[in-house]
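=== Given protein ===
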Amino acid sequence: MDDVLLFWQGDLDDALRQTAQAMAEHLQNWNADDLLKTPVDDVIARLIDMGSVRCPTLLIDQAWMPEPAEVHENFEQFGRRYTRRMTRLTLVVPYDGEKIIFTLRANRYTANPPRVLQLRDGEVRLALDGSPGDAAQVKSALDQQIAKLEEHLTWSRTQIDQHNQRIEAEVPTLVTKRREEQLAVRNLQAEIGFPIRRRPDADTYGVPMRRRAVRPEPAPRGGRAPFRPEPAMTDDDYQAALRVLRNQRNALERTPSVAAKLKEEEIRDLLLVGLNAQFEGAVGGELFNGEGKTDILIRVDDRNIFIGECKVWSGPKTMDDALGQLFGYLVWRDTKAAILLFIRNKDVTAVIEKAVQKIEEHPNHKRTGPQRGDEQIDFTMHAQDDPDREIHLALIPFALRTRSDESRKHNS
């Protein structure tokens, strides 16, 4: 029968190297504005997906057999040509992964690789021709073919897994280095002093947040401001602010008699006191200011780079309101945010699960990060109508008693 020889047409090692090289070249050729505009995690995920390889996995439990067919085989005997009819039994085995892997030779191989009837996208077809014998014999013969395929795929998978692990380990460093190179060019351009016509999709820079005196900047010559990327809160400062909020939360939970007497606005003011004790703005004045009834904002150059929404849980709609207000702000790239959820219900765990579900169902949700028990759950959202402008959102639950809880406690 006509068949296809597998795992013999090319070298798997060479193909993996070419895949990694193509990924690296894509990063180097990535338009600088697009590279700096696209969130880092999205760049890394895109490159890892481009540089990784999916080794095929045979889906044996989905295998199926079409109707038996009659085939004709030509053969020669004693100088004469004959044709004979044979029964062909075919087994279709679906697979998940990249078809090309079936054609490439791994570092470990045999001189007698598998042969199959057909190799198609998403399926490989095995065949038995001739007198099929009983069912047990047919099943055994097909199982042997499958086992031989699995053996060669195992050898390929070992190489591919090592390749994918290298890609995942190296890409974040490559991306960081390339972005730093591009930002250095932008900063050099700004320092030269000539006016720069800015694009609307400018880059971001980290806002230093530490207790120090702020030095006034000299006015630029010619009345035109030099090139400056958009402000963004650094990850270290974001985590420091969240630690302050969690510590304040823990203190309130450890003193339930005090928390029960406080209104939401009063709790918000205590949080502001803790934040202002830790941070000093880099442009003068206090960096943390409450605006509106329950908002906590960090503002730089009239732009909100940190938004804290304080909400009292009164049902799933609470999260709809919180997210609606959050995205109602003019948020900028790499904005950091937190929802401080005041829970005065008994079943705190159930409330947190419902809150997480509402956030994940929101159309602006991109990824859910790690969950630190009931301490904090992290999310990556995107700004309205712009998936490249990311918002790092932390959900910090507050388990607080109510006045009625405290009254019952004292009465008992």
Remarks:
- The chain has a mean pLDDT of 79.
- The longest strand covers residues 80-96.
